[in-house]
Amino acid sequence: MAGKKPTRRNALGRGLGALLDDSSNSKEAGIVEEPRERKPLRERSAAVGSISEVQLDQIEVNPYQPRTDFDKEALEELAESIKVQGIIQPITLRKLNNNSFQLISGERRFQASKLVGLKKVPAYIRTADDQQMLEMALIENIQRQDLNAMEVALSYQRLLTDCSLKQEELGDRVGKKRSTVNNYLRLLKLPPDIQAAVRDGKISMGHARALISVEDSVFQLDLLKKILAEDLSVRKVEALVKQASFPDEPEEKIENKEPSKEIIKVQDQLSSHFGTKIKISANDKNKGEIKIPFTSVTELNRILEIIDA
Predict the structure, then answer these.
(1) Which of 73, 127, 128, 164 gets the highest tally of CB atoms within 10 A of its CB?
(2) Which residue range(s) make up the domain with 272?
């Protein structure tokens, strides 16, 4: 029997660690060895491969940062935490010259520190080229933040174009299945108004995927208006798309009926697996649907992680 397939979280962790770890003496990815003679942090120089305190005004933001929008309230909460507890996890920088550094990861901590009025922050100092900067920024954000679907799609596209990666290599680099990467990249084919709706959370990625299969952009935009006006479910949008593509085929209806013991058993198993109440509906022809409810974008991403694991 083949060995256990590593979870995606581990794949991402290894990917980030491998990119960050430029020291041949490191035993584990992402771990920096302290000098044998431990000096006070303020006395250490900003040497590559060390943890040092760096002036905020010497730090440039990461031009390859995939996140374009930071929640103001969440940033203020982080700032309050830093004010009380300090920065628990150092940010990661690359050294440009003796007095200049560039963020690799930790922009939220960097911005929150500025809000608090800090002059210095603790930081890992690394070496990285532009390609590594982009890859690390993307992987770090996917691991620790909920990028919206359009930010992920644009970041994947940038990895393909700026880093000259092939599409089949991209999934391995970011620890995602190739089908998942393709689904994100397909979002970039949608009209700008639909992309904006996905970015702003007005429609889900499921809605967008249903609209991708529509070739007529005018009909896509009409459907978008209908989704927003009537709060249509993904299932309903898929039915409308199917009806438009095959107008002679009658719309299939699923009648509500008392679930069988087998269905109830499966519902309970799925509910336990996903950590949320699952609903299964089926008709006499054994056709139906599975509903997986969620209450927030964070919970939706958690469910998607389980599905794609």
Answers:
(1) 128
(2) 261-307
